[in-house]
Write a structure and sequence with these properties.
Layout: H1 2-27, H2 32-59, H3 62-90, H4 96-124, H5 127-130, H6 135-144, H7 151-160, H8 167-195, H9 200-222, H10 225-233, H11 235-256, H12 260-270, H13 277-302, H14 312-336, H15 341-351, H16 355-367, H17 373-400
Length: 414
C-alpha cells in the first residue's frame, strides 16, 4: 500500500510538471509537447544535481519507477493508436503526385544525412557513442532517426497557424504521412536486423505479416453494421474497448518479438477513417495525458546514471544534419513538384517537425540495444531544437513574403 501511495504521489507530481511544461511552452509560443518532453527528461538529472542519487532513490525507488513505467507505457500505446488513425485519415491529404515527390525528397535526403552520421559514429565515435550494436542495424537506425516527421505535432502547428486548408499545409501533411509510414517500416527492419543474427528475422517477418493480416480482419469486423450502431450509441464504451484492444495488440506483438509500438499503430490503422474520429480522439487524449510519465521514466532510465559527459560534437552534428537534411529534402521535393520557392521552403520547415514521434523511435532503438545513452541524447536535442524552430522559422518566412503568409488556397472541387 505504501508503494501504491508513493506511486500515486509521484504520478501527481509528474502530471503537475507536464502542466507547467505545457503552460511554459504556450507562453513561449511553442508546441506543448516541447515543454512536456524537456521537463520530463530533465526531472531525474535535476534531482541528482540537487541532492545526488540518494535523493533520486528516495523520491523514485525501484517499485515506484516500475509502476510509473507501466503508466507511461499505457499512455504511449494509447497515443500511438491515435497516431495510427491519423495516418489512416491523412491518406486523403494533398495532391497525389506532388505529395509523392515531396515525400521522396523528405525521405531520401535525410536518409543520406543520417548515413553521414552513421559513418562518423562507426568510424570515429568511440565506445560511448558506438556501443556494441551490429553495424548494419545501427547505421540504418541512425539514418532512419533523421527522417522522422511528427504527424500529430505537425497537424497542431498547421491548425494554430491557419495553414491546415492551404496547399502548403495539405502537401506537408500528406508528405509527412508517407514519410512516417516509410520510417516505421525501416525502423522495423533495423530492429529485425539487430535481432536477426540468430535466425529470428524470418520469424519477425512472419509476425509482421500476421499483424497486417489481423489488421485487415479487424477492419472488416469494425465495418459491420452492428458495430457501427454500438459505436454511435455508446462512444465512451467503445473508446474503452479500443483502448483495451490497443493494449492487447501491443502486448501480443511484443511477446512475438516486435516492438510493442507497432501493435498500437496497427490497431489505429485498422479503424475506418470515417465515424471513429471522436472515439479515437478520446483514446488519444488519454494517452497524451499520460505520455509525460513516459518522458520522466525515459530520462530516469537513459540519463540519470549513464551519460557521464555531453557529446557536444555529436549533438551539433546530428542537429545540423537533421535540420539541413529535412529542410533541404522537403524544399527540393516541393520545387520538383512545381511549388514556388517560399512555399517550398515553408513545406521543408514544416516537415522538420519531430516531436514525440522521434522520441518513440529513439526509445525503440535504445530498448533494442542499438543506441547508447550518449547517442540517444544527441538525437533528443535534435528533436527538441527542430520542433521548437518550426514556429519561428514559419514566422520568418511570412516576414520574407512581405509580412503576409505566401500560401496557395486549395483548388475548388469540380
Amino acid at each position: 500500500m505504501d508503494t501504491l501511495v508513493h506511486a500515486g504521489a509521484a504520478l501527481a507530481v509528474v502530471l503537475l510538471l507536464a502542466f507547467l511544461g505545457r503552460h511554459t511552452a504556450r507562453l513561449l509560443r511553442q508546441p506543448e509537447v516541447i515543454g512536456e518532453i524537456t521537463l520530463g527528461l530533465a526531472a531525474a538529472p535535476v534531482l541528482i544535481a540537487i541532492g545526488g542519487h540518494g535523493l533520486l532513490d528516495s523520491a523514485l525507488p525501484t517499485g515506484v519507477v516500475a509502476d510509473l513505467r507501466q503508466v507511461g507505457h499505457i499512455g504511449l500505446v494509447l497515443f500511438l493508436a491515435g497516431v495510427g488513425h491519423e495516418l489512416r485519415r491523412g491518406a486523403r491529404a494533398g495532391r497525389g503526385r506532388a505529395v509523392a515527390v515531396i515525400a521522396a525528397g523528405a525521405t531520401l535526403i535525410p536518409l543520406l544525412a543520417g548515413s553521414v552520421v552513421a559513418f562518423w559514429v562507426l568510424a570515429h565515435g568511440g565506445p560511448a557513442l558506438r556501443g556494441t550494436a551490429p553495424a548494419p542495424a545501427l547505421a540504418l537506425l541512425l539514418a532512419v532517426s533523421l527522417t522522422v516527421t511528427a504527424l500529430p505535432v505537425l497537424a497542431r502547428i498547421l491548425a494554430e497557424r491557419g495553414l491546415t486548408d492551404t496547399s502548403a499545409g495539405r502537401l506537408a501533411l500528406g508528405a509527412a504521412l508517407v514519410v512516417d509510414v516509410v520510417t516505421w517500416v525501416l525502423l522495423a527492419l533495423a530492429l529485425g536486423m539487430a535481432a536477426g543474427g540468430s535466425g529470428r528475422f524470418p520469424r519477425l517477418l512472419a509476425v509482421a505479416a500476421g499483424g497486417v493480416a489481423g489488421l485487415f480482419l479487424l477492419r472488416f469486423l469494425v465495418g459491420l453494421r452492428p458495430v457501427a450502431v454500438l459505436r454511435d450509441r455508446w462512444p465512451w464504451a467503445c473508446a474503452v474497448l479500443v483502448a483495451c484492444a490497443a493494449l492487447g495488440c501491443s502486448y501480443a506483438l511484443q511477446r512475438a518479438g516486435l516492438t510493442e509500438f507497432f501493435g498500437a499503430m496497427l490497431l489505429g490503422l485498422a479503424l475506418p477513417a470515417e465515424g471513429w474520429e471522436r472515439i479515437v480522439a478520446l483514446v488519444s487524449a488519454a494517452g497524451r495525458a499520460l505520455a509525460p510519465v513516459f518522458f520522466v521514466v525515459t530520462g530516469l532510465t537513459v540519463f540519470a546514471r549513464q551519460v557521464e559527459e555531453v557529446p557536444w560534437f555529436a549533438v551539433l552534428l546530428v542537429t545540423g544534419l537533421g535540420i539541413g537534411g529535412k529542410v533541404l529534402g522537403g524544399y527540393a521535393g516541393a520545387r520538383l513538384a512545381k511549388e514556388p520557392p517560399l512555399e517550398s521552403l515553408r513545406i521543408g520547415v514544416l516537415l522538420n517537425t519531430r516531436g514525440l514521434t522521434e522520441l518513440v523511435v529513439l526509445q525503440a532503438g535504445f530498448n533494442a540495444g542499438l543506441l547508447t545513452p550518449a547517442m540517444f541524447l544527441g538525437y533528443v536535442v535534435m528533436a527538441l531544437v527542430t520542433t521548437a524552430a518550426t514556429g519561428p522559422a514559419c514566422a520568418a518566412i511570412d516576414r520574407a513574403s512581405s509580412r503576409a503568409p505566401l500560401v496557395t488556397p486549395l483548388p475548388e472541387a469540380g
